[in-house]
Amino acid sequence: MVSSLHRPTKAKVDLQVISDNIEITKAHLPKNTQFFAVVKANAYGHGAVKVAKSIEHQVDTFCVSNIDEGLELRQSGIKIPILVLGVILPHEIKVAIQYDLIITIASLEWLKLAKKEGVCLSHLSVHIKVDSGMGRIGVRSFQEANQLINGLTKHGANVEGIFTHFASADEKNNTQYQKQLIFFKELIGQLKNKPAIIHASNSAASLWHTDSIMTAVRIGIAIYGLNPSGDALALPYPLKPALHLESALVNVKEISRGELIGYGATYCAKKSEWIGTVPIGYADGWTRDMQGFSVLVDGLFCEIVGRVSMDQMTIRLPNYYPLGTKVTLIGRDGKQIITATQVAQQRKTINYEVLCLLSERIPREYV
Q1: pLDDT, tens digit, for every residue of 345-365?
Q2: Residue 257 and residue 323: Cα distance in Å, rounded?
Q3: Which of the residues are catalytic?
Q4: Sequence-ordered alpha helix ranges (H) in the chain
Q5: pTM for this prediction
Q6: 138: region left, alpha or beta (phi > 0 left; psi from -120 to 50 alpha)
């Protein structure tokens, strides 16, 4: 998708804020804890390459979702370790070795397939994934973990780490979290050849469950300044959002009582009103369910009226504003603020999804 540089819609990303969030988080971790920064999904919509280059000196490892995200970082000049969190098939191993990417192994079946296909595992570094209750990928017993570690080592791989992922560390009810933590700790305790790096803490666990912090932590949404729980749990220390989404008015008109706006004619003016058009729509990740939500113009909340279309949306203005007037969709304008969490609540989803849905059509500007 082409980045639309010639329209006023843009996401402004403050790289210093991300750096500050990292330092604040590190200050609350035990000494010598390795810091893995999660930059998958285009750094949660913030721009993986720019973010990674700006914080490489602050972190120990980058975490990505797949091989291609790792290649993007390597080809941009990133030198520090990169861990691929998702499972890749054995025939992709040559690429991982070539670009010095650490991969995740999640089952004995994977090792059997690698042997069957004659894949060479020499010079390959891996982390073992443990399914402690998330239910997606990972070994499910210490016996399987032991066999996998021994088998990988026998075939030349360097098993440097082992990890798990919590399903509900961001919720008030910590029953499932405790079950997973106990399972993982017991499994680790029964390993014959324990890897040097052991990690379980994501952003939520690092913030609210310090008993899960082992030799490393994987911090994603928190370094971008968002609360992993939405607003279910209060942050134990302040973090600042790094992304500000804005656009501008490209058309302003006065309509009469009874006039209709947008696809499906879902909005009818109750009186004479000023309507502004903003060049952003669902192709940009600003989805149709944002109708009825508000944006900020001149520090005032202005309702989105009519259906959000693919490339544009319309808002009700309190009075006339000239073309080019700034429209804030996420961020602060004057004394008012709109957060990604508030957008998520409108959509009945999570702030992660709001940021990740911001498409490549929206240019990222960095400060």
Answers
A1: 999 999 999 999 999 999 999
A2: 23
A3: 40, 263
A4: 15-26, 40-44, 48-55, 67-75, 93-98, 108-116, 142-154, 175-189, 203-208, 340-347, 351-356
A5: 0.96
A6: left
